[in-house]
Design a protein that fits this description.
The chain has about 375 residues and is α/β, with parallel strands linked by helices. It is about 30% helix and about 20% strand. It has two domains: about 5-285, Rossmann fold (3-Layer(aba) Sandwich); about 295-385, Alpha-Beta Plaits (2-Layer Sandwich), CATH 3.30.70.20.
């Protein structure tokens, strides 16, 4: 039976954070003595350069508290993450992580050199190229930020392991797994591989930053910060994500990595098996939490196998850049795995989209630094008023 620690924390103050995180680890039975002389990969969410207060990335002070605990316990922390567009080095420099890495003397791993991780029990993706640094780790501390997500509905502990796949290679997975169901199943194959595929298996502890979470059209700049005032921890990412989703009050049935994760029986097969220690879910639930709209029947290909250009353009939301916000930085073009985005044709000061080619993965929306891309309804959606 997996145990999830749920504790209240309403500030990113170092002493408070360390006390809460230590208690969280104690609640799940994790012995800090096991960190002694261990090489510990510490993986935050560093989707893109962003300020802590935007709730796009794991708060830098949350990361600092964790690496200080590792160091004080005799371990060697290594920062490892693979942002969507920018290099890890540039992302660190453009965030508050630069000061933390320098002041704490943290080693930064190279996410670009890959090794193949094999997991024969996966449903489809049995061989995955991930950052080779994971193979040299004794332990992985996964530090997700709880956010909404246009495709997977929520992003937390399970989805954060997607960052083990380097850079823009992640966007190509949307071509191989184009629907929300397929993409969520791929993420669960990856989660299974990271949890059980190493020989011997590497312990993964998930410590979630849900103090300042994100609601609305996450997980990038279009999302909105939302206080949940919570820190969660557990050694089962599916269980941690379930409890976080319950705290936020979102519809669990739409969180496919949780629902389908239960079906995989990766250490937990139902909500009834999860033990919550600390605060009760109800005491931390906000009065309102706005989910992403990506789970509607007409958006993100949710439950609809409309793969032809005609059906996509009729039924599915399309990403549309707004001229008043777009700066023509072309990060959208760089991340587009299907090659659907090209430079402006001169008629408008926005990139040009080929919607027949666009696979509706919405990576461009996720990564746009100006939140200049929004979803527009398909032609038949307008006619139906849906």
């Amino acid at each position: 039976m997996p145990t999830v620690s749920l504790l209240r924390c309403d500030k990113y103050e170092n002493r408070v954070l360390k006390d809460v995180i230590r208690q969280s680890l104690a609640n799940i039975g994790f012995d800090l003595k096991s960190l002694k002389k261990a090489r510990v990969v510490v993986k935050p969410n560093l989707l893109m350069p962003a300020k802590d207060e935007k709730a796009i990335i794991t708060h830098s002070e949350f990361f600092r508290a964790v690496v200080q605990i590792v160091k004080q316990s005799g371990g060697i922390p290594v920062l490892l993450e693979s942002p969507a567009i920018h290099s890890l080095e540039r992302t660190i420099k453009k965030t508050s992580y630069a000061q933390v890495v320098e002041s704490e003397g943290i080693e930064v791993g190279n996410p670009t050199k890959t090794r193949t991780l094999h997991y024969e029990s996966a449903k489809k993706f049995k061989h995955l190229d991930i950052s080779g640094e994971y193979f040299g780790a004794d332990l992985i501390l996964n530090l997700p930020k709880f956010k909404t997500h246009g495709i997977t509905y929520i992003t937390g502990a399970v989805k954060l392991l997607f960052g083990a796949i380097p850079g823009v290679e992640k966007s190509k997975m949307h071509l191989r797994a184009p629907t929300p169901e397929e993409f969520s199943e791929f993420i669960l194959d990856l989660y299974g591989a990271m949890t059980y595929g190493f020989s011997p298996p590497k312990p993964i502890i998930h410590i979630m930053d849900a103090i300042l979470a994100q609601e609305g059209e996450g997980p990038g700049p279009a999302g909105k910060p939302k206080r949940l005032n919570a820190v969660l921890a557990g050694d089962n990412g599916i269980a941690v994500d379930y409890v976080a989703s319950r705290v936020a009050g979102v519809d669990i049935k739409k969180a496919l990595t949780v629902v389908n994760g239960f079906k995989r029986n990766y250490g937990v097969s139902s909500a009834d098996e999860i033990s919550v220690v600390g605060e009760t879910i109800e005491t931390l639930r906000p009065s309102h939490f706005e989910p992403a709209t990506g789970g509607s029947i007409f958006s993100n290909m949710f439950r609809w196998p409309f793969t032809t250009p005609t059906f996509k353009n009729l039924f599915l939301d399309r990403p549309a850049p707004r001229e008043e916000k777009c700066t023509l930085c072309y990060q959208c073009k760089k991340i587009c795995a299907s090659g659907a985005i090209s430079e402006s044709d001169g008629r408008k000061k926005v990139p040009s989209y080929d919607y027949n080619t666009c696979i509706r993965c919405y990576c461009c929306m996720e990564i746009c630094p100006e939140a200049a891309i929004r979803k527009e309804r398909g032609w038949l959606q307008w006619a139906l008023g849906s």
